[in-house]
Amino acid sequence: MSATIAKSLDLKGLSCPMPIIKTAKAMKELAPGQLLEVFATDPGSVPDFKAWAQTTGNPLVESSESAGIFHFTLKKKEL
Amino acid sequence: MQNDVLILGGGVGGTVVANLVAKDLGDRARVTVVDTTGIHVYQPGFLYVAIGQEHPEALQRPEASLLRHDIKLVVDRATRVDTATQKVVLASGRTLRYDELLLATGSRTVMEEVPGGAGAHDFYTMDGATRLFKALKEFEGGKILIGVAGIPYKCPPAPVEFAFLLDDYLRSRHIRDKSEIGLLSPLNRAFTIEATSKLVQPILAERGIELTGFFNVETVDPIAKTVTSLEGDTMEYDLLVLVPPHRGQKVIEDSGLGDERGWVPVDKNTLKHTGFQNIWAVGDATNIPISKSGSVAHYEASVAAGALAAAVRGEAPPTHVYDGKVMCFLETGQGQATTISFDYDHPPVSPTPARRWHWLKTLFNKTYWHTVPQGRLP
Asked: What is the value of pTM for the model shown?
């Protein structure tokens, strides 16, 4: 992973569907190809982020979990 | 010595707490309710006003008629809470002091936060619901979109219910075949709760209601009649119904008692303000990440009432805390409904839609006035 993170969002403690909405807002501000990382604690965010990435065409390039904190990296889609 | 228990807001939460506290404490406390209009409104009825199944007058009663006689009602708007002097300033210039304060101020809708939002209808206020029904009566066919323009909002299943009831309404007018109904959801399912979404999605499909996922409404163009999402998609409509963004009340924001959206930060079990020992909040006003609904305000009320009474008596807080209980009905149209029940420790469950749940919802709507405000239902 050589690309740098353009923006980082701390969405820990927020419950569904807030993480998706905050993420959608943050992605709007990024340029195509830039990376957004998200930290969340809602277990429902795992399937939600996967589905959101597929539907919107912004690739989910990484998804992991450590000590109850979920970490997602999304790439803003090319125009 | 009498304590002053002050309650801001005469909705479900404020009214139930006031009645329970006054009954419990008797002469130990002077209980005062401050309400902006002095009219208690049964907000779950807005949905029915919007499709012409309920009259606005049936959803309103004087707040004074729902409060015990030993409670004082002040019809005025609270503009500021001064926690240093324990006083609340009212719009009239009058001030009221408190020993214990309950914030039951609810939420407000702010459609003005949506660019172009003035071109959309809503059923989140009496005026909005009344205007929406007027527009529906004049509707002769075309595309109706139902979307969500902000989270959190009151009654999470309401957009789904509206879609079903709208389907019934258009069928009753024999214009369903000339109409399209589209439900725009913030997630990739009918609404937040997955189990219930799985139950209602096949019914949406059966009724020809088109579900579009991950469409978080951002802007409206009322001239072109298009709505655009945060995700970047645009859809055309003939009539647009939006759930407006919600915020806490201005008095909360102006007094520095809330977060950036005006929601009051409280402990999710004790309902006590995280920054003040003598302030509690219930209902829509709190920042607790569960449904903003009358049932939540109702269940929280007994906990807040117990905590306020214990504080007045100088006793330790009661062990009875709020467990996150939520209970909602969800109309699925054609005379049927389901329910959604859950709490902090138990995931939501919903029974198969049936007529009895619709009857029970109808019965609850009618008997509300004689049961809930007085604290007669647990």
From this structure: 0.94
